[in-house]
Structure formats: C-alpha cells, structure tokens
Backbone:
C-alpha cells in the first residue's frame, strides 16, 4: 500500500487482467471498453480488439468513447463492417475468445439482466417493467458465443439477486451443464469482476463463489452485499493491488478520468 | 439519367403513413442516424408507428417521447455513454409503447432473413433466455404461439430458435455519401444497413453530402447500397445531429444531454419540440438553429480524413438546389 486509485479503477484493472495477449476480444461500451483497452495498453499489446458494430483494429483517441463505434474509435480503425460480421461471423461462430460485458443484475449462475426491473415473476406475456433498462444490445450474443465472458458490475446486494427479474444474457442458466442443451459456441462466464472482488464459477455446479477480494474490501463485506448465500472458493485470496505500470496504462486510456470521479 | 432527389418534407409526405412499419437504418445510439427524418415525422404528426430500430437512437427516443410510436422492435434501448433514453423509457414504463426485445445480432439476422425471403432464421442466440419466450407483444400477433419457437435441425437433431424475418414497409437509411441516383457509401460501422436495405420494401436515403456518380464508379466496391434498391434521396447535412457521422462531424455532447434530459418529462418534450422541431422550415434555418460556430466546431472532427478520397466529387449546394428545382418542376 499504496498507490492512490479508485474502486472503479481497481475493477477495470482486475477485468483487464482476465484478457490474454493475442486474443480476439470484443468489448462492450463504457467500463468494459476501458478495461479492454487497458489490457491492450499494458500486458496484451497483440490483443485483436473489435466492437459489436464491426470496428476492427482501433484504439480510442481523445477519451473514453461514447459508444462502441463513436468517432473516438474511428480515427485509426483498419476495417469497418457491421453487426452481422462482428456478432455473427466472429462471435456466434465461436471464433472470439473473450468478451467483456456489463450487467445491472446477476444471479448465482452468472445469468445477466439488463432488460428491466419488474419486482415480480414474469408471465410469458408480460406487463411493462417498473424500470426499463437498456435491453440486450450485443450482450446476449457475446454471452452465447464468446469462448469466455467476463461480467463487470457494481457490487450491491440488489444487483446480486437470488433470481434475476429477466434473464437477458445466458450465464450457466440453471447451473451444472444446463448450457449443453443449446448450440452455444461459448463456454459461459469465467469471472464476475465487481467493485469489491472477483467471483468465479465452481467447476461442477457452476455456482459463482468468491475467489478474490480487494485490498479495500473483505469477504464479510462482499457476502453482506450478495443476495444469495455466497460461498468462498478454496482459492480465496487478496487480488494484487494495481501496480504503478498498470495505473499509468489505465490512465493513458482513460484520459478524461471517467473512472476517477468517485 | 433521372435523379431521385427529393426534399425532406416531401419524402415524409410521400413515403410515410400513420400505422406503418417504419425502420431506421443507423449506427448505434451515438452514431449516424437520420434524426432529422424523425423530426419531420413529428412535424407532420405521424402516429401509431410500428418502429423497427436495430438499436435506439435519439430519433427513436424523440419519436417515443412524441407519442408517435405504438409498437417497437429493438435490440438495444439505451444511449450508451449518455445513459438511459428518457423519452423511450418513459413511454415503455407507462405502457404507451409496447417494446419487444431482441439482441443486436438477432435484429441483423431478422433483416437478413427478410432480405433472403427465408421463412425463419435458425438462431444460436437469444435461446434459453427470457428473450426467447417472454413477449411484450400480444400472443395473437405471432404466427406461432411463442416469440422465438424452437426448431430442430433436421441434420443433427439439435434445437435452435426460429427468428421471424423482418420486411419493413419503409427503411430510411442514413448514409454519408449518395449520388443523385441513390448509390451510397457509408463511412464507419454499417451496423445492419446493408441487410436492411435488402429487407425493406422501400428505401429512402438521407445523405450528409452528395457526390457525382463518377465517385461511385471510382469506388464501386464501397457502394454497399446501390441505387437500384433506392426510391429517393434526401440531402440533409447534419441530419444525425446531435449524434455523430464519422468522417463528417462529431457528437454534440451538450445537446445530447440537453435533449435527453428534456425528453424525460412531457413539459421538457413540449419545450424541445417548440425549440428544435417546430422552429425551422428550411434546411438553412435548421443549420442556423445548430449554429455556425457549433457546426464549425463539430466539423473539425479527427475523423475528417476519412472523407478525403471523395472530396473532389462533392456536389456544391448550387448544383443540389438546381437538381431539386428540376424535381419540383417535374
């Protein structure tokens, strides 16, 4: 201890560490875009980055992009295609190795809700939500097709629910080998990186367990902020704090300081 | 060769009607979309639209706030870095707009299915989740009892989802460059505009700039929407404002926020309509509303080099006005 950094920065760095050099990788908007480009700026210079709009080979210029194909990602791309190419030919096909997505609500099997909050069980024909969220975007496609998916979200009890209000993007569904019924090319989420720690699925049950906490959090705090009976993995440990090199690389990507405001 | 140029108010009057399936061809929420076409739909009081937007934009946010949309099919309803889309959100939560959810890939696949005249598209996405079986649309609106019914691969026996194809009555597609015959080049992500241009029954282009046809002959591989698919071309620079058009202008960040905040309440929408929809009659008045200083600042985009190969073919405003005068006379 300790460099000065925010919880958001720790989350972005921890998520970026999940990306390996040389991988074909797809990033969602906002925090996951920063985490992805941090990885590229730090330990994965040969990551092959793409967005769901089909922008390939670009790095952000001028600050955090407003969107996955905003002008800040359009000044040094080598190819512009479209959604069918990125999410279909490269993701649904199983070619894409890792995807980063955000979530509003998750359950113990890594199923994601980004569609809406109803506060009640849904019928097949449903009523309007109390709170409308953004819908799937490319997240359902990434969660179905990418070989591995990393989910990023704020660690709050209301977001870590016993049951998601609406299952937008598939994690391990009802757990175990439930995904096997479907022709997904992707293996499911490999980690949930939160503002407090890192959860990983049990190899058999696929229930997410606490694998690491951060220097500023604790297993007890994380359990208290989780809506299901969170188990600790046998490998439970403190995640390494950001190094100076990591923080420098992240802040070079986050030039407008989006992650430093809290 | 006869040209297809038409003024924006005439395009809306001629090609749109209340209750129609209206698709917008755009990039994602901060990318290029013909937002100005939506402003004109509101000016002409179009109602009960069945909107088909691959992804939300400020145009959809505005049409929802205006009460112009009854039904909506969409893959993403936020504004990315600008947050939730307040006008759309208010309309969906109140039940004013019935929103049927898909994903970004399944919307593109449904356009592809419509374009190829497929009965359905076998999907490896959306299945196994609530996107597959839970529906906001009334069950009687589906040919099948379920939204994305299971279908068995006759070769392997594996279960897939059957996505319904889309063949919108009209697609209004934003393009960077068009020639007067409707050949078009898009800079930046196409998103699903290629598939949509083949799926829609009628296509109208809204272009940032017009070029001579020789430009298309120089880069025929880049002409992803050929004129033979296109009914009409509208010249309306900054039609994507306050969103961005790669190669032409950046996103207007303050106006993105101002607009979205306004759409969060009925009073805010009324003020926005007064100030930014009913307050101009002509293209020049529209550009004056954005303001010359802001236009200069937004046009100084770091993406401007993308337009360089095409600049020598750009038609001048005088050329364009002359062509438009011809079409009025005919």
Residues:
């Amino acid at each position: 201890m300790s460099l000065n950094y925010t919880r958001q920065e720790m989350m972005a760095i921890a998520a970026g560490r999940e990306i390996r050099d040389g991988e074909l990788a797809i990033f969602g908007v906002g925090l996951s875009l920063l985490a992805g480009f941090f990885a590229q700026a730090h330990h994965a210079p040969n990551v092959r980055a793409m967005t769901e709009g089909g922008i390939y080979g670009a790095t952000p210029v001028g600050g955090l992009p407003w969107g996955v194909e905003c002008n800040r990602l359009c000044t040094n791309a080598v190819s512009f295609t479209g959604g069918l190419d990125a999410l279909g030919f490269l993701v649904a096909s199983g070619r894409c190795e890792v995807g980063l997505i955000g979530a509003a609500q998750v359950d113990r099997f890594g199923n994601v809700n980004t569609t809406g909050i109803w506060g009640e069980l849904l019928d097949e024909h449903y009523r309007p939500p109390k709170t409308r969220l953004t819908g799937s975007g490319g997240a359902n496609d990434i969660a179905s097709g990418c070989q591995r998916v990393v989910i990023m979200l704020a660690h709050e009890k209301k977001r870590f629910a016993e049951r998601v209000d609406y299952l937008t993007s598939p994690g391990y569904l009802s757990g175990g080998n439930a995904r096997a019924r479907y022709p997904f090319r992707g293996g499911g989420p490999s980690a949930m990186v939160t503002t407090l720690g890192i959860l990983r699925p049990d190899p058999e049950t696929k229930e997410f367990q606490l694998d690491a906490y951060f220097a500023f959090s604790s297993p007890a705090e994380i359990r208290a902020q989780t809506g299901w009976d969170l188990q600790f993995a046998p490998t439970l440990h403190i995640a390494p704090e950001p190094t100076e090199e990591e923080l420098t690389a992240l802040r070079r990507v986050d030039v407008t300081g989006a992650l430093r405001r809290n | 060769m006869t040209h297809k140029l038409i003024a924006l108010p005439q395009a809306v009057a001629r090609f749109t009607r209340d209750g129609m399936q209206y698709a917008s061809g755009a990039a994602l929420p901060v990318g290029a979309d013909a937002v100005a076409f939506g402003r004109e739909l509101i000016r002409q009081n179009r109602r009960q639209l069945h909107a088909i937007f691959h992804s939300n934009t400020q145009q959809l946010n505005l049409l929802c706030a205006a009460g112009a949309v009854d039904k909506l099919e969409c893959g993403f309803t936020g504004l990315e870095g600008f947050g939730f889309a307040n006008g759309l959100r208010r309309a969906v939560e109140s039940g004013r707009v019935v929103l049927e959810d898909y994903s970004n890939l399944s919307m593109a696949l449904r356009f592809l299915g419509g374009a190829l005249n497929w009965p359905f598209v076998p999907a490896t996405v959306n299945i196994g989740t609530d996107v597959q079986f839970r529906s906001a649309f009334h069950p009687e609106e589906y040919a099948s009892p379920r939204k994305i019914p299971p279908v068995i691969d006759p070769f392997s026996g594996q279960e897939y989802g059957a996505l319904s194809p889309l063949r919108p009555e009209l697609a209004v597609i934003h393009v960077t460059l068009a020639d007067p015959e409707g050949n078009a080049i898009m800079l930046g992500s196409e998103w699903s505009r290629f598939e949509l241009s083949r799926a829609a029954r009628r296509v109208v282009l809204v272009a940032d700039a017009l070029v001579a046809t020789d430009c298309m002959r120089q880069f025929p591989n880049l002409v992803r929407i050929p004129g033979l698919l296109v009914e009409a071309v509208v010249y309306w620079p900054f039609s994507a404002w306050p969103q961005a058009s790669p190669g032409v202008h950046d996103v207007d960040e303050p106006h993105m926020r101002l607009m979205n905040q306004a759409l969060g309440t009925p009073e805010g929408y009324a003020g926005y309509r007064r100030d930014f929809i009913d307050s101009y009659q002509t293209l020049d008045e529209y550009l004056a509303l954005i303001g010359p200083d802001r236009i200069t600042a937004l046009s100084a985009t770091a993406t401007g080099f993308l337009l360089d190969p095409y600049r020598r073919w750009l038609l001048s405003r005088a050329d364009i006005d002359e062509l438009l005068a011809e079409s009025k006379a005919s």
Remarks:
- The longest strand of chain A covers residues 232-238.
- The first helix of chain A runs from residue 7 to 16.
